[in-house]
Amino acid sequence: MITEQGADYVLALKKNHGTLYDEVTLCLDEARANEFAEIDHAYHATGDGDHGRIEIRTYGLPSAIDW
After folding, report:
1. 7-16 b/e (C-beta count within 10 Å ≥ 16 → b)
2. Is the separation of the CB atoms in 60 and 36 below 8 Å?
3. CA R_g for the chain
4. CB 40 within 8 A of CB 18
5. Residue 2 pLDDT grade (very low, low, confident, very high; cuts 50, 70, 90)
6. Confidence (pLDDT) at 1
7. Sign of dihedral through CA atoms 47, 11, 62, 1?
8. Residue-wise pLDDT tens digits, 15-58
């Protein structure tokens, strides 16, 4: 099991979850706009290139949300 190896869960949240989706989107949009200044978080970036293009993925992951 993933948690037995020390990992955390990553869950998908679809738009059909109504209010929860809207609240999470608002929270993360505000956090990104403020560069996660007031939220404990982890940041990770990955990059790779293939077929003449470069892809860079960035992740800002809040560690605790108090709402």
Report:
1. eeeeeeeeee
2. yes
3. 15
4. no
5. low
6. 62
7. negative
8. 998 899 999 889 888 888 988 887 888 888 999 988 889 999 88
Q: Is the pLDDT of residue 60 over 70?
A: yes
Looking at per-residue confidence, does 63 or 30 come out higher?
30
**Helical (H) or strand (E) element with 49:** strand 41-50
Supply 42's token pair: 């982890």
d(CA 67, CA 64): 9
| Two tokens, residue 13 | 């949240």
Output the six-digit token pair for 9: 């869960």
- Residue 26: partners with Cβ closer than 8 Å, 6 or more residues away: none
On whether the CB atoms of residues 46 and 54 are closer than 8 A, the answer is no
In whole angstroms, what is the distance from residue 7 CA to residue 54 CA? 28
